[in-house]
Amino acid sequence: MFTNNEIEQQVAEFLLQIKAIKLQPNNPFTWASGWKSPIYCDNRVTLSHPTIRTYIRQQLVAAIQDKFGSVGCIAGVATAGIPQGALVAQEMGLPFIYVRSKPKEHGTGSMIEGDAATTSGKRVVVIEDLLSTGKSSLQAVEALRNAGYDVAGLAAIFTYGFDVADYNFKQANCPYVTLSNYNALIKYASENQYITEKDVDLLKQWRENPSAWGVASN
Questions:
Q1: 128 is in an annotated binding site
Q2: 145 labelled as ligand-binding?
Q3: The pTM is what?
């Protein structure tokens, strides 16, 4: 049985190894929000690597069973949470649904896709690939609750560990668990020469106040 720390470090290693996470403290990325960021995370890349994809699937299942116990359905958050959620549902032998970012503009106007007749009311765990502020994830949680689902919580591959995310999930009364996190990533990256000590300082500064770091970096 792996410890949480071993899982955090292994997932961090995998994400850096396949460049699902890229660290560029001196050449920051620009997020859709406009923030300048020294890190970019695209966990969709894991889907192209069967060994890593399998490990993530198995550890998400183990985390769900440990954190939430028995559940009756898995829900993915569109779009990146859909394939991860489908893999988890298959492993657990559970029904799968997914939640759109907004209601469909044609046909039924659905926001939740799947067989509502057989899944509504079930205890569900929501699957995300990545947590930043938690806004889109909690929008999905709210949609599921409004549709009659009993949301046990959320599981994700990676979190930036922003305080605002912790606050938002607490306010929504939605517990969550992740396989790895920003602190574990920086620790692994530093110990394995992905970044220098100077880079570590920049990355820590960004983590403390990403919006201010972005302004300062312009």
A1: yes
A2: no
A3: 0.93
